Amino acid sequence: MSFIPKTGSFEGMKSLNKSAIMNIIRTQGPISRADIAKLTKLTPPTVGSIVAELHQANFIKEETGAAKSQGGRKPIMLSLDTSNYFIIGLYGAAEVITTVVSNLDGEIIYSHNQEVFTSPSQEEFLTMLKECIQSTLRTNSLQYSSIVGIGVAMHGLVDPEEGIALFAPHLNLTQIPIKESLEDTFSIPVLVENDVRALTLAESWYGKGKDVSDFICISVGRGIGSGIVLNHKIYTGKYNSAGEIGHTIVDVNGPRCKCGNYGCLEAFSSESAILEKLKRGIRFGRETILSETNLSIDSVFQAAEKGDSLAQEALEESGRYLGLAIANLINIFTPSKVILEGKLFEAGDLILAPIRAMVDRSTLKSSPGSEAIEPSDLGKKGMAIGACTLVLRSIFKPGGF
Ligand SMILES: [Zn+2]
User: Fold this and answer.
1) Predicted confidence (pLDDT) per residue in 227-255, tens digit
2) Domain with 288 in it: what CATH number?
3) What is the pLDDT of residue 3?
4) Are residues 189 and 291 in the same domain?
5) Is 364 within the bounds of a domain?
6) Core-most of 13, 151, 214, 287, by most CB within 10 Å?
7) 14 C-alpha vs ligand 1 centroid, how far in Å?
8) Domain that residue 22 falls in
9) Which DSSP category does 255 fall into?
């Protein structure tokens, strides 16, 4: 994926050498020109002229370092200047659009949630995305020229090359030309990716997947998806749809799933599946403090913590099936980590204990067991951080992960 800026001081900033130098300054700064030359194996004059260009564009800043030896000249040290350029990240979930602004270090400096009204048309959804961007620019007094890119993490099936949301099941929309539409309006480069894959990228840069060559990130919400990282690369498959763990079948006699099959993991373990199971329990007259009217994942956690057996059983069953699917993935890929993301995991051991028990029971001795499992620590903004990371990757590590 190449990053071709259209506007502002970024014009002509793309080149592999520039990206390599910027990435070294990002990860190892403050650093001297001489050390950059050593690490990149570029000649000192090449480093000098690229650094001058980056400095001119206010991308990096200089400071005087400590002298190496007595009487020696103090080296000029370079570090990333995070005060001039920003990235807008959007996460298009089922019922909400999250908009964040990050600096070049991936730090989130603004975040806003906008509810999505029921069943928008394609045009209405695109207008909502644009309004989120416009109000973010306004609220933060940001100029168009200070935005280096817009990243969009979209639920469902995405074509990242064309920037099209091919199928957004929770909105019941297909073929949404997100990249084209936003670039036409804002003249800022736009990158689009599936939400769980964007999250996986964020885990790799800033989360539990940092410096881990092989890991799997599993996200549980209304649906269930996964991102698979093999040898420092995200595995996309031929059709950009790899990782659909939610539609792997965990019980051939199980309930019908939204995809049309029977017994998919999503039909047992997603937030929607848990709430459906509880509704059935309440209707069948099971003893519980839960009521059908105010049923939410939060109320389920609270009831389970108070010892409500119906709520505890629902979480336990969700965890058991998740554990089964995770064990299968562990046996196939032997990742060193399995990172779990989603509100569900805020339930702690109520959900994690049955997952870990099932994983330990069902994985081979040659695979990592439940010790590979770790909840994400990126929090609720993980997907939106991932959206920003799409743009950061295109600046600092084009073509990399
Ligand atoms: Zn399914």
Assistant:
1) 999 999 999 998 888 999 999 999 999 99
2) 3.30.420.40
3) 42
4) no
5) yes
6) 151
7) 42
8) 8-80
9) P
